[in-house]
Amino acid sequence: MKLTYVLMVTAFLQVSLAGNAQRLTLSAKAMPLAQVLEHIQQQTGYHFLVTDQMLAETNNVTAKFKNKPLADALKECFTNQPLGYEIKENLIVLYRKPLAETTKAADVKITGEVTDDNNQPLPGVTIKLQGSNTSTQSNVDGKFTINVPDGKGTLLFSFIGFTSREVQIVGGRTAYNVQMRTQLKSLNEVVVIGYGQQRKADVTSAVTTVKSENFVTGPVTDAAALLRGKVAGLSISNPSGDPNAQSQIQLRGNNTILGANTGVLVIIDGIPGDLLTVAPEDIAEISVLKDGSSAAIYGVRGSNGVIIVTTKSGQGRNGAHVDYSGNASVGQITRRPKLLTAQDYRDQIKDGIRDPSYDKGSSTDWLDAITKKFPVSTLQNASFSGGNGQTNYTASFNYRLLNGMFLRSDHSQITGRADINHSMFDGKLKFNFGLLQTNFNSRDFNYYDYRQAMRMNPTAPVVMPDGTFYQEPNNFEYQNPVSDAYTVDAPNSAFSSRYNTTISFLPIEGLRLAATGSYTKSGYQNLSYENHQNISTLRDKQNGVARIYQGQAVSRFLNLSAEYTRSFGDHRFTVLTGYEYQDYNNFETSIINHGFPTDIFGYNQIQLGVAQKIGQDIISSKRTQTNLISYFARATYNYKEKYLLLASMRIDGASQFYGASKPYGRFPSLQAGWRLTKEKFMENQTLFDDLKLRAGYGVTGNQPSQSFLAVGLLGYGNYILYNGQWIQTLSPSQNANPALRWEEKHETNLGLDFSLLKNRINGTVDLYNRRVTGLLYDYIVPSPPNLYNSTKANVGTLNNKGIEVSVNFVPVKTKDFSWTSTVNFSTNRNKLVSLSNDLYQATLPYFTAGSTGPPATTFTNIVQVGHNIGDFYAFKVVGITKDGYWIYQEPDGSTVTYTDPRFKHAFEDKQVVGNGLPKYYAGWNNTINYKNWDFSVTMRGAFRFQIANLQRADFELPGIMNYNRMASAYDKIYGVAVLNKNVAQEFNSYYIENGDFWKIDNINLGYTFRKLKTKYIRSLRVACSTQNTFIITKYKGNDPEVDLSGLSPGIDARDVYPSQRIYNLSVSASF
Prior knowledge:
Blueprint: E1 3-5, E2 23-31, H1 33-44, E3 47-51, H2 52-56, E4 61-69, H3 70-77, E5 83-88, E6 91-96, E7 107-115, E8 126-129, E9 135-137, E10 143-149, E11 154-158, E12 162-163, E13 165-168, E14 175-179, E15 181-182, E16 190-193, E17 196-199, E18 207-211, E19 234-237, E20 248-251, E21 265-268, E22 271-272, E23 283-289, H4 292-295, E24 306-311, E25 321-333, H5 342-350, H6 366-369, E26 376-387, E27 391-403, E28 410-424, E29 429-443, H7 447-455, H8 481-486, E30 488-489, E31 491-505, E32 511-530, H9 535-540, E33 545-568, E34 571-594, E35 618-639, E36 643-654, E37 664-675, E38 688-702, E39 713-722, E40 725-734, E41 743-756, E42 761-780, E43 790-813, E44 817-827, E45 829-834, E46 846-849, E47 861-864, E48 871-874, E49 876-880, E50 886-889, E51 895-897, E52 911-915, E53 920-930, E54 933-943, E55 946-949, H10 950-955, E56 992-994, E57 997-1009, E58 1019-1033, E59 1051-1052, E60 1060-1070
Parallel strand pairs: 3-6, 7-14, 21-24, 55-59
Antiparallel strand pairs: 1-3, 2-4, 5-6, 7-10, 8-9, 8-11, 11-13, 12-15, 16-17, 18-23, 19-20, 21-22, 23-24, 25-26, 25-60, 26-27, 27-28, 28-29, 29-31, 30-32, 31-32, 32-33, 33-34, 34-35, 35-36, 36-37, 37-38, 38-41, 39-40, 41-42, 42-43, 43-44, 43-45, 44-53, 46-47, 47-48, 48-52, 49-50, 50-51, 53-54, ...
């Protein structure tokens, strides 16, 4: 049954309209009632709730009146009609009048109320007595009355978008309250795609949409975390417990090697933006465009995927609404490293392992010393919405304080948003005005202090008897981490302000013209002052160091589009065309000065430092300006809801390719879909509700991060003495290469969408193959004839392929109990195919990436032609001698010991010993509802990858005495011997561990109070949750969820902010 109008509207600034205040003019001769209702709606702004089936049973209207009150006009129009009506505020609900002949003496009047999932009244529900023509509808308050002969039978409750319900009438019972459940999925559901929307049934590309009710629950650091474990092929991780750390986003692996952007494109309400600037509580849904054919409409910015955010609006809300949510949470380190204690030190001194001078007389747990006692984080969010048929609004205020585990680490954010929509001329002309303001304040914890907390002597005190911090100035890279936290003042602040507007106009049926513009201004200021007591300034004798880093940027955006939709019988098509412009202007400055006479002023009077007077201060500035001009078009075709086609083209020109012979790139796509369940040979099957095959091919580009890549550049060099004056030289710093072009990703995607068993099971399967061509890389060239000895060129090729599976199912669904579950699985493999061609030859068929840091100071990963991205390259350890020296396996298969003179500890002795990128990802999300209780569990994992544990590589060397060690430094390796104290730090396979993990990420338990004894609170929910709850893994480090970005993934570094487990209490209410 098709619903003609379901529109709950309220007034912006709450305009109240009285029925008798509205007057109508009408001249109708045998006019269909549906047409009469349209006239009434146009003149009064009232909306009708009615079905097509009901209108089909009505009589034509003949009436003529002028300026007649609404109530009188309705009474005249509904005379001799089978329908009645009820007015409430701006909504007129039509219902079938009871037939006199069906009401007999034996009839029993059945009454009741129909509500939705949230226990809110549901108007317009059809209630039918099965096996008869007797039916009625629920009114505005969700109440209904129906006469049932002899009080026996079954009532069928049905409403579009909800699962129909059958209710057996029990003898003697005359009142029934029925709750309708929203259907799990609907093929008519609208999916947001690039520059528009499509019905889910018509989508022919790899697009996944996650609605707010399915987001990750509990406190999240940013909006990206809402999708963690929810989308197959999308990796959302935050390997750090730092409150200022952002989520890392990677979609279908790496798509570049050097010189290009690697982040996904984020679109917020049609405008490019940043997920940090929007409050997670403001988001209604997020769509992820995963394949090349769906992202090609975004051209050079779509290579790494597109995330489209739709925020909440006031449309469809009746009356003023206020929603509030708040929570409080605490965190703790997930897993602490086991270090030597003060007692261990004293036992080693007793055993002669350590010199007695290492006992400083105290007992200190340095990790406890840098950890806050009870860091409470909090979130407060309030939103306001409402409107009427012409105007609606939403406004929100969000405050979040993330209080870090470690000293002087915190993040506070205030976000305000306002959005107003207004329509005129029967909805043909629409305006949207929006404001999004975000302010950040934070203090950063120095990750180096975590390493120092592990290094510090546990017998040393935090503070000396005289009140000064304990230090050992002559011990290199050894400093009191508590002192560092309190002798450095480093506040950071930032802001982002976005103003946007959209105007759309429907000049003729099917044609929509739209213009969207935005102005975004952002800025930051990072301050730092190391006072006279800071160990770094003491060692360097700088007497205080002040730093100021600040910048401000402006971005302007304009989009003009026209879309035409038309249907001819079984044929339906749309055509979209548009123009887009965006520019970016950024200016940054930095000042560093030292040598201050006092700590009073610091960065507030940075000119007081003496370094400025003797020319040792550092002052710099930089301006960056870019722009992007684009033209795009798309056409779709639908035949009988069976055969689907989509084609698009985008042309982009960017300032980064100024001077290139072909500065514009062309990015086409083609998609096709076939709904097998619409074929005759599938008519009689009952298993599948819907079955659709998809195929797509698309080309996207990678927008480079550098400017002026195609032109020759000069750079300032050393000073020379010329004619008695020192003159700074200019020399070539970049060769011109007008043949430079975009890196291009060519992607083929094959997909299957299915739904079966009345939508109890549905899902998608996707196979993709990406080939990135024209990778930017620096090549050594002869000079002369070239002015510079290297040239950047498009030569390399990268291959990226995988499989994605997502299945949603409902194992149990009863009146009071439901269990929904979602499983997703994905694979991905990156391979560098080539680095050379006939014109440009790479010096070596590989390059290295990553670093261990001192004292070993070597690379960790290698990128080789013909091999996977993410390979670890190190000495391969296969055993240990009885006296504690490594036994290595050489690349040729032979073995050699650490002390063997044939082993040079050289590059040639290394080999691939693992890979830091998971081969498989999986997620399992479950939600259980029982009456007013709800329980959800989010689980995810990564498999077939390794982690380089650099903490073990450093802290398991027993020969280092001036730094604390892990307790495992004295374990027998392979059960043979403790590592010899003469073995130096190195990067070898012993410290590369299996990283496989399965994480119970989020557990949430909530209770909703639906029927409160107050007219002011609609609903109230209280909940408790945990995040990063439990990990199943063999990995020995803090957390196997490490950094997987870039070309050196899988590194668990020494300088980190370890992940944390979070416990949370929350409350939310609607008024």
